[in-house]
Amino acid sequence: MNRRTIAFTLVELLVVIAIITLLAAILFPVFAQVRANARRASCMSQLRQIGMAARMYLQDYDALPPRLSALYPAYQPSTQLFICPSDSQKGQHPGNPRLEGNLYLPTGVSYDYIPNWGIAHELGWWQPFPNYGEGKWGEQTPLVDCNWHWATFFKLENRRDTPPSGVRGWVLVLLQSGTVKPVHLSLYPDKFSPDGQ
Distance (Å, rounded) from C-alpha 146 to C-alpha 182? Predict the structure, then answer.
């Protein structure tokens, strides 16, 4: 009796490989988008918790903290909340008073503290330290922002913070009220207004 072996032909094998490749090409960008959305949601949650800590500091001292890391450990005991999930360097930047990096907190800070930002002073959002004042829009004045949802690296020198032309994305902005707003990059900071979103 002749026994016939069952096997794939080369054409059938190539068709299967082509289908798997096509499915991968369709699904990988979807998975990447889902992961980016999850990181953004996690970042927004962390910013809200930092906002609550800043409000407690404000109630105790009747002033904003001199820097973001001053909230640790009394008002925010977890150093992980100062690191954005999208920051590939995990807060380990050379830093300055606005984006502190590991300047004051060895574990690092990914978020920008807007009252210490020269452009925020130029735009009249906050007065320079030590008296930041109430803020241009009161409770709706930006307090902290996260640029890691469009930026991939931090450049300490020549930090005007305007992205190169053609770059798209979102800046997550924590307002003094504790609300977090995603603001389109093209509107921030020069065209920002709390009611214009």
Answer: 10
For residue range 74-102, what is the model confidence (pLDDT) as tens digits?
Answer: 999 999 999 999 999 999 998 888 999 99
Task: Supply 101's token pair.
Answer: 């990096």
Q: Cα separation of 14 and 23, whole Å? A: 14
- pLDDT, tens digit, 9 for 90 and up, residues 142-152: 999 999 988 76
- Phi, psi of 183, deg, nearest 5: -115, 130
Cα–Cα distances in angstroms (integers) from residue 28 to residues 17, 25, 150, 196, in the given order: 16, 6, 19, 35
Contacts of 192 (CB under 8 A, 6+ apart): 142, 173, 183
**Backbone dihedral angles phi then psi of residue 16, each to the nearest 5 degrees:** -60, -45
Look at the alpha carbons of 34, 39, 40, 44 in this order and tell me if their dihedral is positive or negative: positive
Which of 119, 86, 92, 116 lies closest to 106, judged by CA?
92
Distance of alpha carbon 95 from alpha carbon 113, whole angstroms: 11
Q: How many helices (H) and strands (E) does the chain have?
A: 2, 4
Question: In whole angstroms, what is the distance from residue 93 CA to residue 57 CA?
Answer: 25
